[in-house]
Each structure stands twice: as C-alpha cells, then as structure tokens.
C-alpha cells in the first residue's frame, strides 16, 4: 500500500457523532488484528485496524480536545494514547508517539447509501495480523501472520 494524497479525505466518527476525524492520505497499514489487546479493549474477536501518517490525521473539532475526548494509555505501551468520545464512550483513534502514526478502525469509517465503507478500495485490509491469538478462523484469501504482515512468521 503506498502513501499519497486522495481526491477527497477519508472520514470517520464515533458512535454518536460528537467526535469525527478526516484523513488526507492512504493507510500505511490496514489489517484485521487478532491481538489480545484489541480483543480486551473492544470485546470483539478481532478488529479492522488502520494506521495513517500523523500528518494525514485531523480532528473534526477545534482544540482543546479535552472538551470532547478523554484519554487512556495501556500501561505496557506508554507511547500509545487512545482517544475516547466523552459522550458515547467509543474509542475513535489512537496515537503512537514512537511511529508518529494514528490508528483508526474500519467499523467507524463513513458509510455510503448501501451501508458499505465509502472508500473501501483505498482502505481495505491486506492481512490478518497476530492471528495466533485468534478467537475465530477466517478462511479468506488474505495472509495470516504471527505479528505484523511481512515482519513476522507467516501462519498459512
Ligand atoms: Zn461519541
Ligand atoms: Zn491488535
């Protein structure tokens, strides 16, 4: 997946719509994540996670962000700050100060009239990562990896 500007920004928001964001470029990573942190933080068997360059991410509201958001940092990963909507409680984005990338989740991207994600061809996942701790086998065509795609052992 290559980085680059888009004809129109990618948009996403929390469940209630109080918090929104836009993304000016393509994801540097898009994958179904089966890691135990994602499982425990969301309660879901896996999530569609996407990483974007920090310079491509913009909040839809003006600073200071404390009016709309609260923040949580996993003790084992102090470089990652998760941002939650104060109104509906949904985590909408996470910033990694080591990589200077933002993470967002596919389920919160703007939908079209047919219910699908508007920009699916731009953001669709390329792999299943941390597949060793999966709660569900996914017999699709994407590669299955112990950790990150192309940076860990392949499991399929
Ligand atoms: Zn909300
Ligand atoms: Zn994960």
Automatic annotation (TrEMBL):
The keyword Zinc applies. GO terms for molecular function: carbon-sulfur lyase activity; metal ion binding. Keywords: Lyase, Metal-binding, Zinc. PROSITE patterns: CENP_V_GFA. Residues 10-121 form the CENP-V/GFA domain. InterPro entries: CENP-V/GFA (IPR006913), Mss4-like_sf (IPR011057). Belongs to the Gfa family. This is CENP-V/GFA domain-containing protein. It comes from Phlebiopsis gigantea (strain 11061_1 CR5-6). The lineage of its organism: Eukaryota, Fungi, Dikarya, Basidiomycota, Agaricomycotina.
């Amino acid at each position: 997946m290559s980085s680059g500007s888009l004809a129109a920004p990618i948009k996403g928001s929390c469940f209630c719509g109080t918090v929104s964001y836009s993304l000016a470029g393509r994801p540097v990573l898009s994958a179904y994540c089966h890691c135990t942190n994602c499982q425990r933080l969301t309660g879901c068997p896996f999530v569609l996670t996407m990483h974007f360059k920090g310079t491509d991410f913009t909040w839809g509201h003006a600073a200071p962000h404390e009016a709309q958001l609260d923040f949580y940092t996993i003790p084992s990963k102090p470089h990652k700050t998760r941002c939650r909507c104060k109104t509906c409680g949904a985590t909408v984005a996470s910033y990694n100060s080591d990589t200077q990338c933002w993470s967002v989740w596919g389920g919160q991207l703007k939908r079209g009239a047919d219910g699908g994600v508007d920009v699916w061809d731009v953001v669709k996942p390329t792999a299943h990562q941390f597949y060793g701790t999966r709660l569900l086998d996914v017999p699709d065509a994407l590669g299955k990896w112990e950790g990150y795609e192309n940076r860990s052992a392949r499991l399929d």
